[in-house]
Design goal:
Oligomer: single chain
Largest sheet: 5 strands, mixed
Strand content: 5-15%
Distance between the termini: 32 Å
Number of strands: 7
Helix content: 10-25%
Number of domains: 1
Length: 172
Amino acid sequence: MAFAADHDVPIAYMQRTRDYYSKLGYPAYRWAHFRDVPFTPLTKPLAQARLALVTTAAPYQPNAGDQGPRAPYNAAAKFYTVYSEPSGVVPDVRISHVGYDRRHTTAEDPHTWLPLRRLQEAVKSGRVGALTPRLHGVPTNRSQRVTMEQDAPELLRRCREDGADVALLVPS
């Protein structure tokens, strides 16, 4: 067994974010952090559960500029409300609207932000009981208030409407 290289460490994204906003003159960024986090264990094995896939990837917008792999940050491609798509087909969703490390990541593998094909395979193999009829997208608009008061309740409503037993959130 070999050790990883000294430089092979997690990216300190929380501190990088604080430093970034501080340099722009904003007050110290406060991450949402709760003392008590509600957790509900699965009431059935995953192989019998209905899973809802939730992503922060944005639906492709043809008139919103470059949104492909290696695209620069593109605020025009943002979305501002929860959306749903049928889970039987893979929708065209992309991640040019989010800030990520474009120097070390190319965004060429859409399965990293929407692993729908892998989940469909997991259903066929029996590892997951079923997928909900829809997958859901939630915006990343940097507002804890909007997330808590608007987006999270809407996402919960849709997951319940679809009969989800569990949700898999895949952030981009």
